[in-house]
Specification:
By secondary structure, the chain is mainly α. It is built from 15 helices and five strands. The protein has two domains: 116 residues, no CATH class; 176 residues, no CATH class. A hairpin with a 2-residue loop joins strand 4 and strand 5. Helix 4 packs antiparallel against helix 5 and helix 4 runs parallel beside helix 6. The longest helix has 29 residues. It is globular. The chain starts with a helix and ends in a 10-residue tail after the last helix.
């Protein structure tokens, strides 16, 4: 009973913070605004790091009700609600609000940060859609058309990120299971799959497979394995029937003990069969000349990590890096 009361009270406070968000949006168009305080967003981030996320949300909600044009504060608020949605999964899909409502709160805040030109708002807005697709998978099972669905009106992600997703997907053979490691890899594969609605590759998040029983059940069904098996043994069971593809950021602890062969951006559990698609670095090359976004450098880091396992990538990366190749490509 006490646990339920705590969940109810926490949900009530979240709802209260969401009401402050709505108030901030209304005030932004109807009232004069207080000056932006550049210390509020960093203070909220520090509170969250100290384990006081609810206190940080309350702080941001009150502040944004008077200073609704602080894009960094909106971004932090959206980021915290996204983390709340993820914790809802980890806590057994229990508690109020539910995961989708947290995501609605996150999207509202992140879209305000995008309006106010916060670079990271766009990336986290995409991550909120990835989390929404996760709820669809858990509700209804693996269905590529639902996985690769995006809300109307979502702003497009940077072309170099979509290009990364296409490169990762084309590196994995038809019918394969593509393990992704970082949020950036997961987002790029999800968004890249919008160009390929009839997905012929199953993206898998090993961290969720290990911690989220409902996700594990649905993805085990999709792969045709026993859902009671831990991730490494489940993938070992899949390996004889399907290609396994490890993205550059995948934790090797999730990988079964088989021989791995580098191919393009991934490592495969079987000899690669070259396809008709080739890697494209056009958008990343363009962005490296025109953009100062830290996310462009994060995407470059994925290619750097891939080159550690596949030296053949170094020749493709010469145009991108010039005289400063990644460590794996230096003599």
């Amino acid at each position: 009973m006490q646990t339920r009361s705590r969940h109810w009270w926490r949900g009530f406070r979240r709802a209260g913070a969401a009401a402050l968000v709505a108030s901030a949006l209304a005030r932004g168009s109807l009232h004069s605004q207080a000056a932006i305080d550049p210390n509020v967003a960093p203070r909220a981030a520090a509170l969250e790091r100290e384990g006081e996320r609810q206190m940080a949300i309350d702080l941001l909600g009150r502040y944004l009700a008077t200073a609704p044009d602080d894009g960094r504060a909106w971004f932090q608020l959206g980021r915290f609600y996204l983390y709340d949605a993820r914790q809802w999964h980890l806590h057994g899909h229990r508690g109020d609000p539910d995961g989708l409502l947290y995501l609605d709160f996150a999207v509202t805040a992140l879209e305000q940060s995008i309006r106010l030109s916060v670079d990271s708002g766009l990336i986290f807005r995409g991550l909120a859609e990835v989390e929404r697709s996760l709820v669809f998978v858990e509700d209804s099972g693996w269905d590529p058309s639902r996985y690769a669905r995006v809300r109307p009106g979502m702003p497009p992600l940077p072309d170099y990120l979509v290009e990364l997703g296409a490169n990762l997907l084309s590196s994995c053979p038809v019918g394969g299971v593509l393990l992704t490691g970082s949020d950036l890899e997961t987002l790029s594969v999800w968004y890249g799959s919008l160009e390929r609605p009839a997905l012929d590759v199953i993206p898998l998040r090993p961290d969720l497979y290990a911690t989220d029983s409902l996700y594990r059940l649905r993805m085990a069904e999709a792969m045709g394995v026993d859902p009671s098996l831990p991730v490494q043994r489940a993938l070992a069971s899949v390996a004889p029937q399907r290609a396994l593809c490890l993205s550059p950021g995948t934790d090797s602890a999730a990988a079964p003990a088989v021989a791995w062969a580098p191919f393009r951006l991934v490592r495969l559990n079987r000899p690669p069969v070259p396809g008709t698609e080739s890697l494209s670095l056009k958008e990343l090359l363009k962005a490296s000349r025109q953009s100062t976004s830290p996310w462009m450098h994060e995407v470059r880091g994925v290619y750097d990590d891939a080159a550690r396992h596949n030296a053949l990538l170094c020749s493709s990366l010469l145009l991108l890096y010039g005289d400063t190749p990644p460590p794996a490509c230096r003599p």
